[in-house]
Amino acid sequence: MFTRKLLPVGNALLENASVPVSKASLTLLTYNMLSPYYMWPQVYTYVPEKYQDWTYRHRLLEREILNLYKADIMCLQELTVKDYEGFWKPHCKNKINYGSSYISKTPPAYWKRPQDEMDGVGIFYNLDKFQHLSTTSIYLNDLMGLFNISELNYLKNTTVTLTNGAGEQTGKDSLLNVLHSRNQVSLFVSLMHKETRTLFVVINTHLYWKYDEVKLCQCLTIMRKLHRVIKQLLVGRDGATYSRIKILLAGDLNSSPNSPVVKFLKGESVQRSDFSLINPLRPYLNHYIYQDTPSELFDHTCYSGKLKGIFDYIWYHDNDFRLKRILSGVEISEELNLLKEFGLPNKNHPSDHIPILTELELLD
């Protein structure tokens, strides 16, 4: 097994500029855990049955998340209701003094299992370092009040060519209908950093796995909800201003670094039909970790058979945070090549995604 390394990374622009830097820092992890109910037989044919076993994989997840990494803030995706309520929530509160928040997806039409086996996203935070202020969640198919009439008309009149898991065309539908039929969620947790009294909003999400138009609309939904969360956070808080709140967005975006989703979150204009789509929260988010990371440190963050790529992100504004260290990922590719294995999970890694661990320094 190749050992991943928590490596320092340099940001030349910040290091060479006269930017006042506080000594305060935090560690943040994002991790798609691979729900046991998404271990589709037709997808994971390359994984030996003993390594598909949930008990085996869960022990590895516990070791990684709670022992190896134990970040100050942990954003987990594909976390089931049953696993959150039965293990992660009580264990983190009683054993390591971490608070947590969670939202489950709604079961899709094909779902025949109990509702508590549905997955969602959770945020865990170190109560020795943070005070919990509030939690808000959103279903990304709930567009009520977030899109105006002209935007809804655009969604209604835009056609999406539907495909199956093999990429074969199966029909067409309006973008609005496709959005309404998806069950993705997003979680917003507001925290105060006890040492610096800094206010944070931490966002965890897991976007739909295909159709750029759907993922763009889901991102816009998150950003518009975030604006409301920030506004509510300021109510009754003397001395707090919009400019003093820092945002951290983490999760599985199912989008590569050259995708429209990443371009949108960076604050660049994404042209659609006769209008330009621009992130309304670009003053809070404009930067992701791989912009400050040497390209040779990561091949992929997802190793799911034929589906490989960098899909897992941590976002912030480069006036608010500096990336100090990151857990490298290229060792996973080297390990798979040595073992002549097709993908993850395997004996050493419990998910088809790898955990992304960072240390971020707070900038004054």
UniProtKB/TrEMBL annotation:
One GO MF term: 3'-5'-RNA exonuclease activity
Pfam families per the UniProt record, alphabetical: Exo_endo_phos
Endonuclease/exonuclease/phosphatase domain: residues covered: 29-353
Alphabetical list of SUPFAM superfamilies matching this protein: DNase I-like
Protein name stated in the entry: LALA0S09e07074g1_1
Lineage start: Eukaryota, Fungi, Dikarya, Ascomycota, Saccharomycotina
Record-linked InterPro entries: CCR4/nocturin_mRNA_transcr, Endo/exonu/phosph_ase_sf, Endo/exonuclease/phosphatase
